[in-house]
Amino acid sequence: MSSKTGKPIMRSAAWRISLLATLAFACGTMLVFVFLHRFVAEDIQRRSDAWLSGEIDVLRDVAERTPKDALYGAVVGEVAELASKEVPYKIRSDDSPNDTVFFLQTGEDGAIKLWVGAGNGEVNLKAIKAAKILPDRPNDLSVSGFGIPYRVASIPVDDGSRIYLGLSERDQMRVLRNLRLRFVVMWLVLVLLVFGIVFYTTRRMLSHVRRITEAASRIGRSDLNTRVPTSKKNDEVAHLALTLNRMLDRIESSMHQLHTITDSLAHDLRSPLTAIRGKLEISLSTIQGEQTESIVSAIEELDRLTDFLNKSLDVAEAKADALRLSRSEIDLNELLLSMIALYEPSMSEKGLEIKLRSRGPLKIVADASLIHRMIANLFDNELKHLPAGSTVTINLVLKDEMAALILEDDGPGFAPGVRLHMFERRVKGKESKGHGLGLAFVEAVACAHDGEVTASNRQEGGAHIEVSLPVAPAEAIK
């Protein structure tokens, strides 16, 4: 079960909020029911005790007023039978009319004098003697053979006998059991209903936040002119959207100013450098002799300075997430083949061997000029730092829907002092003649294309650099 964004619903904020709110509601209602159940149970017991107290007083009056003749047992027994029909909460039973109430009268010797109820009363009398029933208030009594206890009231009679009136708690327990059953059913329905209402409301509210998040994630990667969707509602989410749009206005203005400054700076610096290079080339064509070497060296230094300027500006813009991209579909395999063909003569001249292992065509959507310069930087680093006789191996593979360009060599690897800061600007080895921008530029280009780059030393010796870039959508499906 997933949401529209492909994210599982059970991991969404709406799901967590709904669970917490429903849990709070469920615990609150359960706590209320516990107090309600306790109140109802005490009220039922209070009513039962009141009935017992009232009926046992009546039975004592009947026992005291009825002559002690042959009809005594029949009269008192009949009154006890009538009393059993007035029991509160009683389930009427035609098979056993005395299964809920028992009446027991004992003589002065403690033996059964009169019994009305199920059985012969011996087990009831034994349980009464063992429990020591107090005469002032009803007590609970467990009788052997009966799973449900009785509530028993006791009262003495003037002739020395004692009357016990017991009321089974079965009907009271049935009332409480039905109450619990109805509550659980109603509680489950309410909990599900509350969860559904909270989830629907929360998800609907957060859907606008999700649309704002999706729009904000696209801004800065493709077009700063895009704005997050707003709402006509005057709530916190609408205020958030308006605030983000105002912030984006300021960011777009700042980026525009940054681009204006970098363009002006690049133009102001490149123009005199280009003019100087042109004059040096003219001088080179007219001057002969040893002076030509110094002019050629000056031209090379100017080229290095121009390259340093371009890389510095690109890295600075990339770090500010302001690198301007002109995306198009690029076949990395084809680009690598052309780059290898371009660099192979220079590498062969230095005694280096380059190998390509590729899965075939692998397309990405990226800025062609930046990707070209990024690969050129990697090859330039190999040319500058590898000793003669070294081998450079390039693997192009598809890994987790990412195009992985893996470059390995069997050279000396990265210096210990550079290893922890190799992606920082102006960081280079002691013997390096570069500007320390090569890997910084590679990381800047990779990050600008939502990719990443890692670099380390191989265990068997040499450097290992891996650049991962998102593949084109159609390529990811293959």
Annotation keywords:
478 residues; alpha+beta; Beta-Lactamase; Heat Shock Protein 90; five-stranded antiparallel beta sheet; five-stranded mixed beta sheet; 12 strands; 54% helix
Give structural notes.
With 478 residues, the chain is α+β, with helices and mostly antiparallel strands. The chain has three domains: 13-175, PAS domain (Beta-Lactamase, 2-Layer Sandwich), CATH 3.30.450.20; 236-319; 327-477, Heat Shock Protein 90 (2-Layer Sandwich), CATH 3.30.565. It has ten helices and twelve strands. The strands form three sheets. A five-stranded antiparallel sheet has the order 2-1-5-4-3. Strands 7-9-10-12-11 form a five-stranded mixed sheet, with helices on one face. A two-stranded antiparallel ribbon has the order 6-8. Strand 9 (391-399) and strand 10 (402-409) form a beta hairpin. Helix 1 runs antiparallel to helix 2 and helix 5 (236-286) runs antiparallel to helix 6 (291-319). The radius of gyration is 47 Å and the shape is rod-shaped. The chain starts with 12 loop residues before the first helix and ends with a helix. Residues 93-97 have low confidence and may be disordered.
What is the helix tally? 10
Largest sheet: 5 strands, antiparallel
State mean pLDDT (0 to 100 scale): 78
Kindly, what is the distance between the CA atoms of the first and last residues, rounded to a whole number of angstroms? 25 Å
Q: Which structural class is indicated by helix and strand composition?
A: alpha+beta
In percent, how much strand structure appears in the residues?
15-25%
Q: Give the overall shape.
A: rod-shaped
H/E series, N to C? Answer: HHEEHEEEHHHEHEEHEEHEEH
- By CATH, the topology of the largest domain is Beta-Lactamase
The beta-strand count equals: 12
CATH architecture descriptor of the largest domain? 2-Layer Sandwich
Number of domains: 3
Strand order of the largest sheet: 2-1-5-4-3
| CATH superfamily descriptor of the largest domain | PAS domain
Residues in helix, %:
40-55%
